[in-house]
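Hi team, as promised in this morning's meeting, here are the two structures we talked about. I've kept the exact order from the run log so nobody has to guess. The first one is mostly here for context; it's the second one we should focus on when we meet again. Sequence first, then the predicted structure tokens.
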Amino acid sequence: MKRRFSLLLVLVLIFTMPLAGCKKKKEVKVRGEKVVSVETKKVEKNDISIKTTLSAKVTPIEEANVVPKIPGKVTKVNVEIGKFVNKGDVLFTLDQTDMINAVKNAEAAYNMAVANLKLREEQIQNAKVNYERMKSLYEQGAISKQQFEQYELQASSTNIEAVKAQVEQAKVALENAKSKLNDTTVTSPISGVITSVNINEGEMASSAMPAVSIANLDRVVIETDISENLINKVRIGDVVDISIKSAGKDNFKGKITALSPATSQGSMTYPIKIEIDNKNKLIKPGMFAEVNIITDKKEKVITVPSEAVIVKEGNNVVFTVNGDKAHMKNVLLGVDNGEYVEIKNGIKEGDIVVVKGQNYLDEGSKVKIIK
């Protein structure tokens, strides 16, 4: 009985072992066909560029700090902060009493000098008449040579030169007095907006500090520096994008108007100047600006998202999808701006590349496109 039971057990084991082996082999096969979920993108030709960001502050295209040419008591202030003025508009006036008196004195001195000149000219004219008469008498021997020379001296034009010099001197003094009188009325040297007023009526104004400051905000300037590896990649006239968050979300367009061929003193960077139109006055002096300069650009080239490129065995590769299979392609890279990268060789326009999930792929991996 025991022998029959043992024989039956052996037969059961013989028949069940192949079945167990077949089941195990089937499970391995299923695991070998693992499917990787990926996201893909169609390869296209696009423009690609590399931008370098420079930081700077905004300054007016034109600015004037106005001080009076002469010190004096302020009698009237015609402007206030934020007011627009044209070139030549009166900003403030100083007391004119002393200057008016100085002009009157200078006019009197000038008129006296002119009168003296006229009198001397008449005297010389009479002396010339006497000279001609005395010359005839001298030739006849009626008067001595000494007497004749006195008449000759009186008729000489050298006597009038000193009087003319006095007239010229008086004229200059009068012009200076009038100029100082004009200086009591202080006008704007430029057209622009008043940015500061540091005087009040009744106060003394002097050249020690600006009385009024004016800025032309029709255009603003950004002055910054660029490194030596970028200096030869920009030119005067280039248009650049400028971000000024305080003035709005949209970027502004600026033009490079000056570029130094030499480095700044004590640095290894080159000064650069950029101008921006500011007709709507959104940009204010002192605002922080970010200048985006294109230092490299390619047009109509094959590009893929930078994240699509990975490194395998020391090579730059991307994975393309054909059907449900992934294929590894070695690629030659070009310009990379951190978001997109130029592919010079390895794939072509219209290929489908994996942009998510590529790190889990090998050549021939089975994939499922989820996006």
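And here is the second protein, the one for discussion:
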Amino acid sequence: MFESEQNWELFGYDMRNVGRHFSAAWRDFLWAYDSPVRHRLDEAVRLQSADGVSFYQAGDVCDDVSAQCSAVLLPDDLVLDRLLRMPLAVESELPSVIALEVNANSPFSADDTAYGWRVVGRDEQNLQVALAIVSRSAAMTYVAQQYGSHDPHAQELWVNSNGVKVVIEGFGEGKRLERYRRRLLWVSGLLGGAALVFLLAIAISAGLKNIELGAVQEIAQTTQRDTANASQMRAALGQANEAIAVINELQIAHPSAHLELARLTALVGDDAYIERFSMNGTNIDLRGRAVDASSLMQLLTEQGVYRSVSAASPIRRAPGQEKEQFHLKISMGEPG
């Protein structure tokens, strides 16, 4: 008998209750007041009380919003509230345990009893549950007298119990819960679609990689067959690299005069012109006229491509003109 009982236990846990624990965990994750999902997706509620109007979302106060759901806060004298301490072992069956507790402690008839509950705390061994019990007839009489509503499903009924707001079940909360359920389904559909797209992308990527692998294998086989030609091409490539290196050295020692002339033309602008341009290696001899030759010389000095810019002769005013004559010696820096 001992071995038969222990066959269902793993590391001290009764495996027969795994399904109920799993369902309870998902219920808390999606439907509990402190659920991050519900905090984002739950409908806002406009709460009317003797103190005025306030707005709540997932059981917490929120800013003034456009709320499609409304609730009425019952006064404390219509509410029987208790703070229950229960072992963690009953968490998977908490709704049933709460129903038994209500049946055992309600002073009202079964048809006239309405209740709500909310988990307000937990530790390593126990749960703390705020339980509120009201009389349906007394609650609806209060709503009819204070707010003129005779439809029990037109609004939700809330109460204050042990410092938190508790929703009394069986009234207008079904509309809000249905909207929340539809939002959960919509978000689940989006996540499912995203997962399908992700899996499709992985499948396409794997297919492309397979095609690429086949192409690489074919290239490898072709390369192995043409090893001799590849060796000849490597030798020719080495010679070409040497020729390119020599050409680069020549370009460094003898830059393109056309390129430098175009650069100077762009820098000089419309208020100056070049009369004479000569270039020997990396040295440029430049003559011309400008409205402000000093500014032009300063502009050329600031160019990183030129290592030095100096005046070969003093800048002087051209006879009969508003322009200044300049004669500059320019030495180019490292190419790049």
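Starting points for discussion:
Confidence is low (pLDDT under 50) at residues 1-6.
The first strand starts at residue 9 and ends at 10.
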